[in-house]
Specification:
With about 210 residues, this protein is mainly alpha-helical. It has 6 helices and 7 strands. This is Transposase.
């Protein structure tokens, strides 16, 4: 991906130097279009592989509703944020979780997953982005910021699964929190149910 982006930057500089509508300008423009198409395919391929792995591996997947427009105003992070394609990632997870019998839980936009202590539940008023280690002022917990947020999201998924009604997946089978991703067919003890794709049935919780 980084190599392809460097090629796009080089071709953009080359295109500016060419005389507009000349033969060399048209040739550079075609190469630039192919480079952009390659970047789009690389990004989409990686996204499909990630969402497929999450939907087929875990019974419950948790995502956050982030303020992408606000995060994009950060000059240092804007490219990485927009390259991630978070809206497309969530869209793919939504229908793939239905396909494979998993459950998708979306945390509310204002849910303080990073500011909340996963051990005691205390909430920090301010937690700057550059602070990558979470330190609780109440119980003294110290852990990686992202791990702390992941634990809070996992706890949210358990709470939602315990209170939510039963749903049906794309194959019309019941999906309960304790039976997410399992077929209604009986199977022998010690075996794992495989889906139509040959992937093991989803188990556990992914954040």
């Amino acid at each position: 991906m980084r190599k392809a982006l460097r090629k796009i930057a080089r071709l953009n500089r080359e295109l500016v130097r060419r005389k507009r509508r000349s033969r060399h300008w048209e040739d550079t423009r075609r190469r630039l279009n192919r480079a952009h198409a390659r970047v789009a395919r690389i990004r989409l391929d990686a996204m499909h592989k990630l969402t497929h792995r999450l939907a087929t591996t875990f019974g419950t997947v948790v995502v956050e509703d982030l303020n992408v427009a606000g995060m994009g105003r950060n000059r240092r992070l804007s490219r990485a944020i927009y390259d991630a394609g978070l809206a497309e990632l969530r869209r793919q997870l939504r229908y793939k979780c239905e396909w494979y019998g998993s459950r998708l839980v979306q945390a509310p936009r204002m849910y303080p997953s990073s500011k909340t202590c996963s051990r005691c539940g205390a909430i920090k008023e301010i937690l700057p982005l550059w602070e990558r280690v979470y330190r609780c002022d109440v119980c003294g917990t110290v852990m990686d910021r992202d791990e702390n947020a992941a634990r809070n999201l996992a706890a949210l998924a358990v709470a939602v699964a315990g209170s939510g009604p039963e749903t049906k997946n794309a194959r019309g089978e019941d999906v309960r929190p304790d039976l997410a991703g399992r077929s209604s067919m009986k199977r022998e003890a010690g075996t794992r149910q495989l889906g139509k794709t040959g992937a093991p049935a989803p188990q556990g919780t992914g954040t």
